[in-house]
Write a structure and sequence with these properties.
The chain is about 0% helix and about 50% strand. The chain has about 120 residues and is an all-beta fold. The strands form two sheets. Strands 2, 4, 5, 6, 9, 10 and 11 form a seven-stranded mixed sheet that branches. It has a four-stranded antiparallel sheet with strand order 1-3-8-7, with no helix packed on it. Strand 4 and strand 5 form a beta hairpin.
Length: about 120
């Protein structure tokens, strides 16, 4: 059974930086896409960034130029480096793993495995 766990959420000031981590066990890492989503209070869950097993990376418009998704293949950890944080980045951030998925669709399949989320709060 696949287990997904996010970590690194915190409270930061606008303009600050934060790095989130995602660890997944029970899966063949190289065959999965991995993605970050977020859900702000009263809002719908939205895409942030994704990477698939071909190495293709995509970003939501809200993340381009500020966020970087990366993988440590040796340690099987997915990261989301967030810079120049804004108050509108406040949300619960989720990591999702999906077997064989393409980056642009990662997390939308019926068999996607989700973590419980980690809270990011950006306020002055």
């Amino acid at each position: 059974q696949v287990q997904v766990q996010e970590s690194g959420g915190d409270s930061v000031q606008p303009g600050g930086s934060l790095t989130l981590s995602c660890r997944a066990s029970g899966a063949i890492w190289g065959k999965h896409c991995m993605a970050w989503f977020r859900q702000a209070p009263g809002k719908r869950r939205e895409d942030v960034a994704a990477v698939d097993n071909t190495g293709r990376i995509i970003y939501a418009d809200s993340a381009k130029g500020r966020f970087t998704i990366s993988k440590d293949n040796a340690k099987n950890i997915l990261y989301l480096q967030m810079n120049s944080l804004k108050s509108e980045d406040t949300a619960i951030y989720y990591c999702v793993l999906e077997n064989g998925g393409w980056a642009r669709l990662c997390g939308y399949g019926e068999n996607a495995d989700w973590g419980q989320g980690t809270q990011v709060t950006v306020s002055s």
